[in-house]
Amino acid sequence: MPKRSDIKSVLVIGSGPIVIGQACEFDYSGTQACRVLQEEGIRVILVNSNPATIMTDPDFADATYIEPITPEVIEAIIEKERPDAILPTLGGQTALNAAMALYERGSLERFGVELIGANVDAIRAGEDRLEFKQLVLNAGAGVANSAVAHTMDEVIQIADQIGYPMVVRPSFTMGGLGSGFAYNEKDLRRIAGAGLQASPTTEVLLEESILGWKEYELELMRDKNDNTVVVCSIENFDPVGVHTGDSITVAPALTLTDREYQNLRDISIQIIRDVGVDTGGCNIQFAVDPLDGRVIVIEMNPRVSRSSALASKATGFPIAKIAAKLAIGYTLDEIPNDITSVTPASFEPSLDYIVVKVPRFAFEKFPAADPTLTTTMKSVGEAMAIGRTFSQALQKALRSLEKRGSSFSWPKSKLAIEPLLEKMATATESRISQVQQALWSGATANEIHEITKIDPWFIDQIVLINEIALWFSELESVGLAELKKAKEHGFSDAQLGELRMTSEAEMTKLRHGLGLRPVYKTVDTCAGEFPAETPYHYSSYEQFTEVKPSNKKKVVILGSGPNRIGQGVEFDYSCVHATFALRDVGIETIMINCNPETVSTDYDTADRLYFEPLTLEDVLEVIHAEAASGELLGVLVQLGGQTALGLAAGLQEAGIKILGTSPENIDRAEERGQFQEILDGGQLLAPANGIATNLSEAAAVAERIGFPVLVRPSFVLGGRGMEIVYDQNSLVGYFDRIAEHALVDLKHPLLVDRFLDDAIEIDVDAIYDGHELFIGGIMEHIEEAGIHSGDSSCTLPPITLSQNQINRVATATQVIANGLDVVGLLNVQFALAQDVLYVLEANPRASRTVPFVSKALGITLAKAAARVMIGATISELKAEGGLPAKDGRHLPAGTPISVKEAVLPFKRFATADGRFVDSLLGPEMRSTGEVMGIDKDFPTAFAKSQAGSGSALPVSGTVFVSVADRDKPQLLLPVRRLDQLGYRILATEGTALMLARHGIKAESVIKHSQAKDGETSIVDMITDGLVDVVVNTPSGADARVDGYEIRAATTAADKPIFTTVAQLSAAIGSFEVIREGPFSVKPLQDYARERAGLLT
Predict the structure, then answer these.
(1) Tally of CB atoms within 10 A around 473
(2) Distance in angstroms (rounded) separating the CA atoms of residues 94 and 753
(3) pLDDT value at 84 more than 90
(4) Distance (Å, rounded) from C-alpha 246 to C-alpha 357?
């Protein structure tokens, strides 16, 4: 059947900020959907609060609303835009929950809007635990013995029937939030309490433990004619007990017999049919008992999921794109396969390669967190690799993580086996390395299986890798055949060099001398049955390459690798914009990346895609293959964060041209002495500073410049290892903490700066072409200096800076750009203290604020920068319309205010005893994503940013205040205003006394540390839901315990928390705004038209 003629406009609901469990794979899905709908002539209306995404670019929708994803806001958009339908299946659990809330409110019926992609009954059947259980039984599959609870009393009653251990699974949550294994009543009360709170329907499923079973997933699509395809089967390396997002996964499933696979396929098709998903995709998870083959269905997602992105990249089958087409009426047999151009989407993909996905964790950012992997997802990103064998794909995936110790190694002195066996009994991110090391040291495969329950086939593959390593290390001489055999199993030159006790460079030289280089195969969805039209490649050591020669000018763009805290989707945004900009001027773009979640690794983003690790060896081999035809102009390394920058020097040494700012000048920005010379030459100030490579040197610098000092390792992203140190003892503790992470050495010195108290921090994103500077935006941080720029709220335009101060910032940026010979993007961070401007740091590369500036001011900064890096001038871009005539220092009155707010993952990280980690912010970045609020004034924009980040301010209620002595004078005005607005004020004894002296009524509460048995402390009140907002700034060591308990309880209760008085002061106007009624909404396209009117 052709597409529906009654759907003229569709509202697509995005997934909001990047959070653990719901990351940039939904940007990829949503971008695909918006493209498809526009191609079909449908008016696309988009709501998403995340400015860092490609999908919120105004080009991808007719009306782009960067607004909080709440039922009230979406209803206002529906009332304004009157869409015919809503597509909620491409925005993760956030979009699905929003759609259900609209249905419950009666909004869909009131405005006559239809849900497409999945209907209400299908969503309920997939997410409602009891209803789904019955559907599974009807399909002939088993379910774990289970029951549903809505209160803690019900939970305890059910536990008596099921017995321990048991699994707790909340309804309508993502990434396993609130789930876990309970081994006793104490565990159960903690996990189920969190689960009931995490579930929007206050519902948890309690089920018998299936720990140690094998886990599989099937990704399916079904149309309204009941055509169903299984797109991909995925197998977890780890057994049940580790969230699938935290497990290594493999596609296709490798340890199922054909009969077992067909059984899972039959069950899946029956379930998708019975649930009623008839215009889209779904993901079904299974557990299989390895002893008797019993099959249990764990859960299904009646929407495009995290695994859908992996399945899409693994097969080349564009699930989100096809889901959007099915939603508007097409059937699978009517949709052509882009990759072959001759087969329809009703052909199931067939793979002649193996795909391995490995998760990337960030426990180093949360030292107090329990690193045990459970059913609550904790990974912040993932890398994917493709190979012709499992061993090849696994080793490529491990080195794609770019993490010290992630790749296998073979030490000459073998490790003690018993400690390794003991460690691997607990699932952690290091388990696969522990397995490999234990096998290398003499443990048996059977011992490993008994402890870990990892399938024996996978363990045998690691045994094989170790056998190849031993064989290679003992060879008398290495020839072509031997080297080729090792490379077929995924060994890097660095690993082979280690085995032969030589360098990586020597091994590469030997390999090239023997004429051994990889060839590149194509992901074609059909195992070579039909020719592929799309150049989507992976490397292998075989005979024939499938890269087609090209006679065009071309540029290689290095992506940013797996997401991590400090290097997320913002960098992918810049890479994708560069591909668009270069393609528009006739230059062929070559993308190298290994992140399956991103838009950059979509097969139709760049002209050619290489799914490869971002290591020097792998990147140089791709460049060699591409340099064989056409004209290679060079490589862009400034857009992919620290990952790409780290390769710049090695590429240049190999004779590859680096486009834009040279590697030497990039290093000059980090090298303290050279950078100081640039500042001195321009008469610019930096805080008193020094460099150190060990504790004694750091102590000498601190003594010279005075405490407090800001310490930060050089050449890192996301403030890794950055702290404010207040005294000598704290400095000793700092060196103890970073010792195991190897952040500081002779090549990577520690930068020590005098910390500026009470300073305003300013961020600038600019482009420089060698002559002319274009200021993209000047952002003012809402928190004072000392909070990492990635975690700080910031506003654009700045709200307290004078035009004179803005001009001084712009002049200083020009001096730095000129001094560093920047060609392309530049980010500079300043601090303004007592009207003295200090330069904190400069980064001649894309920053994480580039997407925010672009959305806030309607400027495509990354596109313009890519053009500048290949030779265009700013004046040429202005003449073409690629940049506005006036830059970010000249913003007229009436320019809308945008506020960026960080979204933090503290709810994902608990200590070993089950309490949440401290939510206190500092100079090391901890946020996973961001939201943006935009409106006519700052109070409204700030209120929107809080609502978008999940910490909506209450219109009434109770505010608890406890601040350090140094903050008390600044506290008076905001608390007085809250009191005048009718909020009830609670405070600890000292703060309450100070407020009372100023005529502010505050009720005194008992500190956690002072509460006696039977007394209710402030922590108890927060836990019991009696407090709506918490203001807590850190003070001395004696108060640290109280502060931690307060902040941890607030995080657990999902309440807004302010940890700086500056942030509270900024929010006061917002407390007033939210009492005036619902937010008004406006798309970016309208803001752009208004902005253009202001400038004429």
Answers:
(1) 14
(2) 42
(3) yes
(4) 10
